[in-house]
Each structure stands twice: as C-alpha cells, then as structure tokens.
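For anyone still unconvinced, we reproduce a single protein record, the chain in one-letter code, the fold tokenised, and leave readers to judge:
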Amino acid sequence: MNRSSPRPGSGRPDRRIAGLVGIAAVTTLAVVAIVVATRPGPAVPDTIAKGQPVPAIAGSALDGTQVDLAAYRGRPVVINFWGPSCPPCVTELPLLATKATAHAADGIAILGVLTDDPVDGAAAFATAHEATWPTVVDPGAAIKKAYHVVGRPQSFFVDRAGILRSIAIGPLNDADFEARFAAIAGGS
C-alpha cells in the first residue's frame, strides 16, 4: 500500500482538500477586504428631495450669456431638462412657451438645461420653437447628475424660496402644468 494515500477511515485529511480549503479561505478574506475598502460613503438618493432646496445651477446659456438659478429667487421656476433630438421635448416646447406668456404676470421663470445633445444647432432650434427662456449648457452632465435626471424631458417645479415642490418626468400637458405651477406660484 502506498504511504501517501490515507487509509479509509484513518482520520487524516486529504492534503489536496486542505489546500483547496486554505485557498478558499484566503480568497474569501481578500474579497471581503476589497468590498470593505471600496464601499461607498453614505448612499446617494435616487432623486433630489421634494421640500428641500434645489442644487445650484450656473453656467453659460446657448447664447453665451451667464445664467445663475440664484438670480430667480423670489420667482416660481420651472427647470426643464431637454434636447432637440428628444421628440417629447419638441412636443413640450410649445406648451412651455405658451405658459411662459400666460404666467408672465405671476413672475414665472423657465430655465432650460441642454441635456444629452450637442450645443451646435440647439440655440437655433430653441428660437424656432419659441423657447425664449435661457437654456444652460451642461458639459460633462454635472447639472444632470446633481438633479438625478432619468430622462427627457424632465421638469422640476421650484417655489419662490428655491424649494422643490414637484418633478415631472416626460412631457407635460396643460392640466398637469397648471396643477404643478399653482403649487409653486403661491403668493402671486
């Protein structure tokens, strides 16, 4: 009988199994160490919170002027993430243009954020569709990330104090816009 082979029932573990168990233990410890070392900090919410101040927006508009959301404090603001290659955005722009005129006496401010489209042609497109409000260019999608935008169009309704009151994902219709605007226009 070969001495390197244990006899059945002798109680000596097979060295190959012991080696595999050791490798598995080391691998498990390594995986746990990697998970602990790369664990992110506090969880980031999937969206900005209603009832809380909205993130800052500042940057260059399509026409080259500088825009700062803080300048709109005291006015109800609709922040609209859009792009000319987005068919629902194209459908929604005339509604926003109508509402900008209809609620001018209420102090409405509409602020566009060009999202997921190149700047080339966007200014001419906005003008052709009567989007007379400023549209901020968002290179690197920093504003999109800060607002946790999930699609286009997406609109954020912000009250006069800069507090988010509602979020609309997808194109707005007249009744939906009016209900959301009423919630931010208080005091007009």
User: Anything to note?
Assistant: The helical segments are 15-38, 87-102, 122-128, 142-146, 174-184. The chain has two domains: 1-39, 58-184.
